[in-house]
Amino acid sequence: METGIRKLIREVVIEIIPVTLTTGKQVSYGCDDHLNDLDVILNYLLFLRNNHKRTTASRTDYARAISRLKNQIRKAKKYAENNQ
What we know:
The chain is mainly alpha-helical. The protein is 71% helix and 5% strand. The protein has three helices and two strands, in the order H-E-E-H-H.
């Protein structure tokens, strides 16, 4: 029962609160502009990670951020597919 309520609250919040892009523009969650912005951020993080030597703490931090961002991209794409 609790998971159904959480899912409903998440969907309502996603529809009400706009996402702010890196340009400052506000768009809806999962739209093409939002996904493109996430891809730009991902590519920049990959660039930064690749400029650090392996086994350094900085590279590990970037790898963790990249992993989390990829999860966010997957969720946003899934949400966009289900709501078209």
